[in-house]
């Protein structure tokens, strides 16, 4: 279905052409309608990328790109929709085709690197990022640079990129969580705890950061839950995570008590905690 603004635009275009004489009028009308179709398709593409079912978006862009193989925007839409649908193996060559187009941008290169990281091809992702001029300074670029530096265990470089990325976005919770997890894997749980707490302050709904915060506290022998927003179900899950941390550190009795607390706290039967408790009892 075309949107109302398209119909109005079409009427205006036809009205403007009404005074043209017959021989050329038809061509002018065709060109005007073609321009309107492009506007309408662009609007539909935006909708497909943001609101449509991921699988349906892939099918739409596959059909559109086949019918218009020279349209860069449709190739780009297909690549984005494949990533959104979790079809990483297909997304990598799709982004490669986009970046091979003469109209490709530096942002396309960053998106290509993102797809490569999702596919686990860190070395190639680094090559793609290195080929992008340093003047292209965006949050997404620095977030990926930080992740690549992490993978290479270049800790100071990773910290620098994470810090820059945080300063380039108004929604830093995700990158703060990544940075904290990096610190946790390096054996710096206190620094990780601080970063996870910052992430939760930015996004109180980010359960991954809550779970990571508990892991960081458990690694330090802190077996109490932090004062953060949580539902009853989340509380049970975090108690279970804390119990696992305690058992890993050899504090078995503490872990057993935390598993029991998780079972009592959860509003329903909590199978993971029950299995953990049964394993300790056996």
TrEMBL record:
Keywords: Signal. Gene3D superfamilies: Tetratricopeptide repeat domain. The keyword Signal applies. Residues 1-18 form the signal peptide. The keyword Signal applies. Pfam families: TPR_19. SUPFAM superfamilies: TPR-like. This is Tetratricopeptide repeat protein. It comes from Rhodosalinus sediminis.
């Amino acid at each position: 279905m075309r949107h109302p603004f398209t119909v109005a635009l079409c009427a205006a275009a036809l009205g403007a052409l009404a005074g043209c004489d017959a021989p050329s009028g038809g061509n002018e009308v065709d060109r005007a309608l073609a321009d309107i179709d492009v506007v309408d398709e662009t609007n539909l593409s935006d909708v497909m990328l943001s609101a449509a079912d991921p699988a349906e978006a892939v099918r739409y862009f596959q059909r559109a790109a086949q019918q218009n193989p020279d349209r860069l925007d449709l190739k780009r839409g297909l690549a984005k929709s494949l990533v959104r649908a979790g079809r990483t193996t297909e997304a990598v060559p799709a982004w490669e085709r986009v970046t091979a187009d003469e109209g490709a941008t530096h942002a396309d290169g960053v998106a290509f690197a993102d797809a490569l990281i999702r596919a686990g091809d860190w070395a190639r992702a680094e090559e793609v990022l290195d080929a992008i001029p340093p003047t292209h300074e965006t949050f997404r670029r620095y977030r990926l640079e930080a992740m690549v530096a992490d993978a290479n265990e270049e800790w100071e470089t990773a910290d620098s990129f994470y810090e820059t990325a945080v300063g380039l976005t108004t929604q830093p919770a995700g990158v703060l969580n990544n940075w904290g997890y990096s610190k946790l894997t390096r054996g710096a749980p206190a620094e990780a705890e601080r970063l996870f707490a910052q992430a939760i302050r930015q996004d109180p709904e980010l359960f991954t950061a809550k779970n990571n915060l508990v892991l960081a506290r458990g690694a330090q022998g802190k077996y109490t839950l932090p004062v953060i927003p949580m539902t009853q179900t989340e509380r049970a899950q975090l108690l279970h995570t804390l119990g696992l941390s305690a058992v890993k550190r050899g504090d078995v009795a503490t872990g057993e008590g935390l598993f029991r607390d998780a079972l009592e706290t959860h509003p329903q039967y909590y199978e993971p905690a029950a299995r953990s408790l049964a394993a300790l009892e056996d």
